[in-house]
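Handout, section B. The chain below has 83 residues.
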Amino acid sequence: MNKETGGPAFPFSVMTYQPDHPESPRYTTTWHGGMTLRDYFAAKAMQAAITGCATRGEVGIYSNWAGLAYDMADAMLKARRQE
């Protein structure tokens, strides 16, 4: 699968102190990406769909919602690129 992911949703870095390496920098930084923006958008879309159906007392087929959530996430990423 080669989909546009939008990059990391919540990137963060971890700085590690290394006192045993006198020739190298005492701190090293490692970057972590976490989930992609596409995954985050899909999770939010699915949450909204489930909440809406649950408050109306509807029973849906959850397996179909995952695909629809990612379709919506792809549409959100496309809209971001067009701005």
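Note. Helices lie at 37-55, 62-82. Compare this with the example in section A.
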